[in-house]
Amino acid sequence: MGESLAPGAVVVEVARRNAVRANLLHRWRRESRDAPQARLVPVRVTPGFAGRAPGTIEIELCGVQVRVDASVDEAALCRVLRVLGR
Q1: CB 38 within 8 A of CB 32
Q2: C or N terminus of the chain, fewer CB within 10 Å?
Q3: Which region holds residue 51: left if phi is over 0, alpha if psi is between -120 and 50, else beta?
Q4: pLDDT number for residue 51
């Protein structure tokens, strides 16, 4: 998102280069302006985790790995990620 905030940046072009829809990038920019304490973190998607059930995601944050599947309690996961992000 930082790239889209640079002087002279064109949001549509930044979105296209990063394979993100422009309306989503606009939304992130608006939300970051409205909630300056919020921050985005880089994400890397790695296809083909052998031996993992479909729908499983693994999050590595601050050197800690959290692995969840579709049955995870959303509120509990939010609390865990909030603590790790401090």
Answers
A1: yes
A2: C
A3: left
A4: 64
